[in-house]
Amino acid sequence: xxxxxxxxxxxxxxxxxxxxxxxxxxxxxxxxxxxxxxxxxxxxxxxxxxxxxxxxxxxxxxxxxxxxxxxxxxxxxxxxxxxxxxxxxxxxxxxxxxxxxxxxxxxxxxxxxxxxxxxxxxxxxxxxxxxxxxxxxxxxxxxxxxxxxxxxxxxxx
Length: 157
Hints:
Layout: H1 9-14, H2 18-40, E1 42-44, H3 46-60, E2 62-67, E3 70-74, E4 77-82, H4 92-103, E5 109-116, E6 120-129, E7 136-141, H5 148-151
Antiparallel strand pairs: 1-7, 2-3, 4-5, 5-6, 6-7
C-alpha cells in the first residue's frame, strides 16, 4: 500500500500551483500566530463579548420615554477602536505590554476596548487580533470601569 505524502509549499510552487502554495503558507502562518497567542495571552471569544454586552446593556439601559414607534432608551456597549485611531495615550505600563506583544509577531492589529454610550467613557483595554481569527487576546488594561475580569470569568481565557 502506497503512503500519501502531503506536498510542501515549495513542491506546489515548483509545479506551478501558486495559489495552493500561498494558501498553504497562509494556513501555516495562522497556526504559528495562534500557537504564540494561546501560549502568552488570555483569550476572549466572541461569545464572551456578546455576554458582556448583554449584561452591560441590562445594567445600563436608561429609558428616555416613548415616541409613536415605541420606547426610547440608551445603553452602553463595548466599542473596539484600532490603536492607530485611538486618540488617548495609554500609561507607560500598557505601552510596554503592547510593545512586548508586538515583538512576539503574532498579532496583525491591536484594538482598544472602551464603553460607548451617548458619550464614550474612557475604560480602555488593549486586545491583540489575528486576521482570520474571531478571537481577541487580552494585552493590558488601565482604569477601572471595564476590566478583563468583567468580560472573562476566572476560569476562562
